[in-house]
Amino acid sequence: SPFLKTKFIGHDILYYESIDSTNTFAKSISQNCKDGLVIIAEEQTKGRGRLGRTWVSPKRKGIWMSIILHPNLPPSEAHKLTIITASSIYNTLCKFNVDIKIKWPNDILINGKKICGILTEMNAELNHINSLVIGIGINVNTEVEDFNEELTKIATSLRIETGKFIDRKKLTAEILNNFEDFYIDYLSTKDIRPYLEIVRKNSALINKYVEIIKPNEKYIAKVVDIDDDGQLVIDNDGKIEKLLSGEVSLHNM
Ligand code: BT5
After folding, report:
1. 116: CA distance to ligand 1 center in Å?
2. Which CATH number fits domain 209-252: 2.30.30.100, 2.130.10.10, 3.50.50.60, 1.10.4160.10?
3. In the CATH hierarchy, which fold is given to the domain comprising 13-201?
4. What does the pLDDT read at residue 117?
5. Domain assignments of the chain as residue spans, ordered by start
6. Residue 19 bridge partners (DSSP)
7. Which helix (H) or strand (E) holds 131?
8. What count of Cα atoms within 13 Å lies in the side-chain half-sphere of residue 153?
9. Do 13-201 and 209-252 agree at the fold level?
10. d(CA 46, CA 239)
11. What does the pLDDT look like over 208-221, one tens digit per residue?
12. I need a surface site. Which of 51, 62, 70, 156 has the fewest CB within 10 A?
């Protein structure tokens, strides 16, 4: 693509008309492939969200892709790559002049509805990430009819929000360009704060009440901040708590 300006990410792309899940496939080959390999599919038949949830991925309507990386980082830093991914996608989508918010840890919303989800997975040893897979799903030209009834209430697409038909190839390249910029910079500085700043400034959650759903309990708390480690800081009835991504589901009240 003439739009791709990256140094290495997406120089090799495996492209599929249909696949079960780009993340499932990427994970299966990630230990033995080049850094920066990207898997792209027109359709996923078993698209996945977190915690076994489903990601609806209709044919030629969205960007369903996975980036395979081999960063020299401990597993405890993996969640920071989700922050980098979300902030870089935010930056890319800004040009559409719509109201974009980042919902910690892995969602991007337009006008309060979900347009993008990120699924970061890894193969790791105790102290080392062997390979990391960043799955990105973006509803681009999806129309209301493509969503099921549940999703029409909570999901949207660039098409629905802007009224325009969008070039998915160009947008894919722009996302990879932006992501690589942030990623290379982060690897050299190891400083997540500039990206956290983007997440904080455009947070869908800060100062809002959310329902927190853990495996054994459910409660309402006010989101106060996202700390410098990327944890969500909440005020639970006067008690300040920190939440790691992955351990909670959040519902806006
Ligand atoms: C996510 O999970 O948001 C991560 C989604 C990652 C998808 C990409 S696509 C490429 C790669 N290959 C994969 O198989 N996955 C990645 P989570 O936070 O658990 O959100 C899942 C929830 O979002 C579902 O339970 C639905 O409520 C909702 N959802 C499902 N499909 C959606 C869609 N197309 N748009 C908006 N929301 C959706």
Report:
1. 7
2. 2.30.30.100
3. BirA Bifunctional Protein; domain 2 (3.30.930)
4. 98
5. 13-201, 209-252
6. 44
7. strand 129-139
8. 2
9. no
10. 40
11. 998 888 888 889 99
12. 51
Digit-coded pLDDT (tens) for 160-211: 999 999 999 999 999 999 999 999 999 999 999 999 999 999 999 999 998 8
- 107 C-beta closer than 6 A to ligand 1: yes
pLDDT per position as a tens digit, 219-243: 999 999 999 999 999 999 999 999 9
Quick check: CB of 135 below 6 Å from ligand 1? Answer: yes
Cis peptide upstream of residue 105 (ω within 30 degrees of 0)? yes
Whether ipTM tops 0.90, in short, is yes
Whether 113 lines ligand 1, by a CB cut-off of 6 Å, is no
Is any ligand 1 atom within 6 A of the Cβ of residue 104? no
Going from the Cα of 54 to the center of ligand 1, the distance in angstroms, rounded, reads 6
Q: Over pLDDT 70: what percentage of the chain?
A: 98
- Ligand 1 centroid–CA 106 distance in Å is 10
Supply 51's token pair.
Answer: 């915690």
d(CA 218, CA 226) in angstroms, rounded, equals 20
- Any atom of ligand 1 within 6 Å of the Cβ of 151: yes
Q: What is the pLDDT of residue 176?
A: 98
Average pLDDT over residues 39-66: 97
Contact residues for 219 (Cβ-Cβ < 8 A; gap 6+): 211, 212, 236
Please determine, for residue 251, whether its predicted confidence score (pLDDT) is greater than 80: no
Is the minimum distance from the CB of 117 to ligand 1 under 6 angstroms? yes
